[in-house]
Design goal:
There is one protein chain. The chain is built from 14 helices and 23 strands. The strands form 4 sheets. It has an 11-stranded mixed sheet, sandwiched between helices. Strand 16 and strand 17 form a beta hairpin. Helix 8 packs across helix 9. The N and C termini lie far apart (about 55 Å).
Length: about 450
């Protein structure tokens, strides 16, 4: 593909298109020309190479890609998942189960690009539309039938999926997040609603019937399927959670089916059920689905359970009030003595959620260690002050050094305790200032264990 929006990736003879999203691409036109661009697509300006001026570069790009490349990928079955929480787990479950069933499937999302196995990291949960097309073309070349795509609210609002047609769209939930960008919950919901306007041939909209924002996604033009813990086309009758798996019963068309997953927690039963529905609509029996659901693992950093002596150390990406609350309730359902939680909040991001997360963590844990989580350019002590404004109890301590906080949390454990390490999940870095420094929560736990065993 010889049209690019990143001036650093321009090669001799390429076309550079100046997109206006988080940054104005017009600033980089001269760099693109220096790097060899022989054509510019822009909204304004005069340049010393062939130039096409258009009213809106994003709209031009969407049409250009559709006209030139869509026919090559249109027979891929696209499965889109949107929601505040659960996108990665649901997408990866579908990806993993279909591959286990012998149906070659790709995944595009927070954890990167996968075709059965990890291929490469991605810059965003939902990459720019040129990148999406390149990934879909690669999936097609590798003989994939299905592609699971995490559809973020930013990606949908910025038309990074525009022009694509989905066979399945899943809505997991909507809770407080990204309001620095969307401003209101209604605008946040409407951004996510865009996915449900992209279904082809009256295909399936799979919607969490327990979420209070569900009406935004129950569009009359779609084939709506609901799932729930109370009432819906597929609903959970009862469930049981142990330290190693979750078992649950699903009612569909007045018949009962039992499923087991390695994933822990009620929120992961929601994610599993959404995945089950997709595979069922593809044509698999509940028995076939359970056979693979039982053996597949969840994505790295999502309720990732590390057993240590008689303890469970759980690493999770939870970084919103709702996600933290769900993980803590999931931990409470596992047989345990005490729950210790390590959590923080990112810098240069929505400060409104900080005191809410502080309160939830201390209310639902026995002991909390508040620490740093990607402080970026913000003062970690200022972030901590915001978190502590919501705390009404004294069952916490502060250790801004995340390495020391994890070490302290592990050393506090007694038999049958649970340690939750929240916020970073799969990430293998800390953002300090503007620098990315290698840091992996699971690696920190493993290093502590190895060091402890030596002694």
């Amino acid at each position: 593909m010889n049209i690019k929006y990143n001036s650093k990736k321009i090669q001799k003879g390429d076309t550079f298109i100046a997109l206006k999203t988080n940054n104005d691409g017009h600033k980089y036109i001269n760099d693109a020309i220096k790097n060899g661009a022989t054509k510019i697509v822009a909204e304004y300006g005069n340049y010393p190479v062939e130039t096409l001026l258009v009213d809106n570069t994003k709209e031009y790009l969407v049409k250009y890609l559709y006209d030139n490349y869509y026919k090559e990928i249109e027979d891929l079955t696209l499965i889109g998942v949107t929601g505040t929480n659960g996108k990665t787990t649901t997408c990866m479950l579908i990806h993993n189960m279909l591959n286990k069933l012998g149906r070659k499937t790709a995944y595009i999302g927070t954890n990167g690009f996968y075709i059965n196995t990890f291929i490469k990291d991605l810059p965003n949960t939902t990459p720019e539309i040129i990148d999406i097309y390149e990934l879909l073309l690669e999936a097609k070349e590798e003989a994939c039938e299905f592609v699971c795509i995490e559809a973020s609210s930013h990606g949908l609002d910025q038309k990074r999926l525009a022009g694509l047609k989905f066979n399945y769209a899943i809505f997991t939930n909507l809770t407080h997040e990204h309001l620095g960008y969307h401003k209101t919950m209604e605008k946040y919901a409407l951004a996510k609603q865009n996915l449900f306007k992209m279904l082809r041939n009256n295909k399936y909209a799979i919607i969490n019937n327990d979420d209070k924002y569900k009406e935004y996604f129950l569009l009359k033009e779609n084939n709506n399927i609901t799932y729930s813990f109370t009432k819906g086309d597929y609903y959970i009758k009862d469930y049981q959670i142990t330290s190693s798996h979750s078992t649950f019963k699903v009612i569909n068309k007045n018949k009962e089916y039992t499923f087991t997953t390695k994933l822990l927690g009620k929120h992961n039963i929601y994610n599993s059920l959404a995945s089950i529905i997709v595979l069922n609509k593809i044509g698999y029996s509940f028995e076939e689905i359970n056979n693979v659901l039982t053996i597949v693992s969840g994505p790295k950093g999502r309720m990732e359970n590390i057993s240590y002596n008689n303890n469970n150390i759980i690493i999770d990406y939870a970084h919103t009030p709702d996600a933290v609350e769900k993980v803590l309730w999931a931990a409470k359902e596992i047989p345990h003595h005490k729950i210790y939680t390590i959590v923080g909040c990112g810098g240069d991001r929505d400060p409104i959620k900080r005191p809410i997360m502080g309160r939830i963590a201390t209310d639902l844990s026995d002991v909390v260690i508040f620490t740093s989580d990607n402080p970026r350019t913000e003062d970690p002590e200022k972030i901590m002050d915001d978190i502590l404004k919501g705390v009404k109890t004294k069952n916490y301590e502060v250790e801004l050094d995340r390495h020391k906080a994890i070490k302290k949390g592990i050393e506090l454990l007694e038999p049958e305790d649970i340690l939750l390490i929240l916020g970073k999940g799969h990430e293998d870095y800390q953002i300090l200032g503007r620098d990315k420094v290698h840091f992996d929560d699971a690696e920190e736990v493993e290093n502590w264990r190895l060091e402890h065993e030596k002694n």
